[in-house]
Design a protein that fits this description.
Layout lengths: L2 E8 L6 E8 L27 E3 L10 E9 L6 E9 L2 E7 L4 H4 L4 E3 L8 H7 L5 H6 L2 H10 L11
Parallel strand pairs: 4-7
Antiparallel strand pairs: 1-2, 3-7, 4-5, 5-6
Bound molecules: zinc ion (ZN).
Zinc ion binds next to loops.
Length: 161
């Protein structure tokens, strides 16, 4: 069971604003509606691994900080969009629809499992002219987010040319 957070998001694809209900599995799962500012029970290390991928970088961030990428579907055009849900010291501090960028991904510690590696390819291609299909084949989702945030491809990649 998921909880949800009512939110108004603008779809990056069709630009329409819509009342959305962001579903999340970060909390107690009793089907409650939460809002920014609400206190929540979230156990940083007991979240199910099959629902969220824990990024390696998550261990370096504040123990009380969780920032999760979640999915929301536009009801108008059906686009699969991404939102970021931030929790600090047991309180929801933000929920926003995001475009993928170094800035928006910097705090992220967890990624909902329906978000695919392919969704990070356009921003990777825009940042790294030298990126090849072979590079992409070997880049995990963790690697992809790390590359976007750090501005560097994994160190063991040969720089072509
Ligand atoms: Zn849309």
């Amino acid at each position: 069971m998921h909880d949800f957070i009512p939110a108004v998001f603008t779809c990056p694809s069709c630009k329409l604003e819509d009342d959305c209900s962001l579903q999340t599995h970060l909390f107690d799962g009793e089907g409650r509606a939460y809002r920014v500012g609400d206190a929540v029970e979230v156990q940083a290390h007991s979240l199910p691994d099959d629902v969220y991928l824990s990024l390696e970088r998550g261990d370096d961030l504040e123990p009380g900080h969780i920032s999760a990428l979640e999915i929301w579907y536009c009801r108008e055009c059906g686009a699969c969009n991404i939102a970021r849900l931030d929790v600090d010291e047991g309180k929801i501090t933000g929920v926003q629809s995001i475009e993928l960028s170094p800035e928006t991904l910097a705090p992220v510690t967890r990624v909902q499992h329906h978000i695919s590696r392919a969704q990070f390819v356009p921003v990777l291609r825009s940042m790294f002219a030298a990126l090849t299909d072979e590079h992409l084949m070997f880049m995990s989702l963790n690697d992809r987010i790390e590359a976007i945030v750090s501005g560097r491809l994994p160190a063991d990649f040969d720089e072509p040319g």
